[in-house]
């Protein structure tokens, strides 16, 4: 009798897992189709990954797990590599802890825009150059990014939007992919001289 209960439990758990994988896969297929991205084949329900081009930039979207506070956490990362004329920098969401400050070798460098400086920590060796080159439109897009996705990171060479979950909604996959593409375009083409 107990063997039958164990078998039923295994079937229930396996069925629930299979439904979740199928729903996630469906959302990723839909998003890849809408965006014109290539979706890599999944192996045994493993993490999905897709990539494609938005505004002449390759965007990669993938699910990844990392250890956060000794526990595994799952994230969906949207990453795009860029070439800008910005100085070396690292932008993150302003948090209570400033543990990540100083990775570039600079200090928290306010750029003189109160709304921007309140939300974003800028670690750079050349805050004056950044302040002069970062357009108001790019600043607003960065504020929105960090308010919606506080664990994201932006540097002079990449934009990495990170969600604190494995994305299962096609609309979110589409919107976030487009968000990193648009932000990359702003950082490249709309810099003030």
Classify the secondary structure makeup into a structural class. Answer: alpha+beta
Annotation, overall tally of beta strands: 9
Q: Indicate the radius of gyration in whole angstroms.
A: 20 Å
Stretches with pLDDT under 50, minimum 5 residues:
99-105
State the order of secondary-structure elements, H for helix, E for strand. HEEEEEEHEHHEEH
Tell me the fraction of residues in β-strands, as a range. 25-35%
How would a crystallographer describe the biggest sheet?
A: 9 strands, antiparallel
| Structural domain tally | 1
In short:
The chain has about 190 residues and is an alpha+beta fold. The chain is about 40% helix and about 25% strand. It has one domain (about 1-190).
Question: Would you give an account of this structure?
Answer:
This protein has one domain. Helix content is 41%, strand content 27%. The protein contains five helices and nine strands; from the N terminus they run αββββββαβααββα. The chain has helices at residues 2-35, 114-119, 127-133, 136-148, 170-189; strands at 38-39, 49-54, 57-68, 71-81, 89-93, 107-108, 120-124, 153-155, 158-163. The chain has a nine-stranded antiparallel β-sheet. α1 (2-35) runs parallel beside α5 and α4 runs antiparallel to α5. It is elongated, with a radius of gyration of 20 Å.
What are the key terms here?
single chain; 193 residues; alpha+beta; nine-stranded antiparallel sheet
């Amino acid at each position: 009798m107990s063997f039958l209960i164990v078998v039923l439990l295994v079937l229930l758990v396996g069925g629930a897992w299979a439904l979740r994988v199928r729903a996630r896969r469906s959302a990723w297929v839909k998003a890849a189709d809408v965006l014109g991205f290539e979706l890599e084949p999944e192996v045994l329900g493993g993490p999905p990954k897709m990539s494609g081009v938005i505004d002449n930039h390759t965007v990669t979207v993938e699910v990844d797990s990392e250890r956060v506070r000794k526990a595994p956490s799952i994230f969906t990362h949207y990453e795009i590599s860029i070439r800008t004329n910005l100085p070396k920098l690292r932008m993150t969401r302003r948090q209570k802890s400033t543990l990540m400050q100083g990775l570039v070798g600079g200090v928290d460098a306010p750029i003189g825009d109160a709304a921007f400086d309140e939300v974003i920590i800028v670690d750079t060796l050349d805050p004056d150059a950044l302040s002069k080159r970062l357009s108001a439109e790019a600043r607003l897009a960065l504020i929105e990014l960090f308010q919606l996705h506080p664990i994201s990171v932006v540097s002079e060479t990449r934009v990495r939007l990170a969600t604190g979950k494995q994305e299962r909604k096609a609309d979110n996959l589409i919107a976030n992919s487009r968000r990193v593409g648009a932000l990359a375009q702003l950082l490249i083409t709309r810099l003030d001289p």
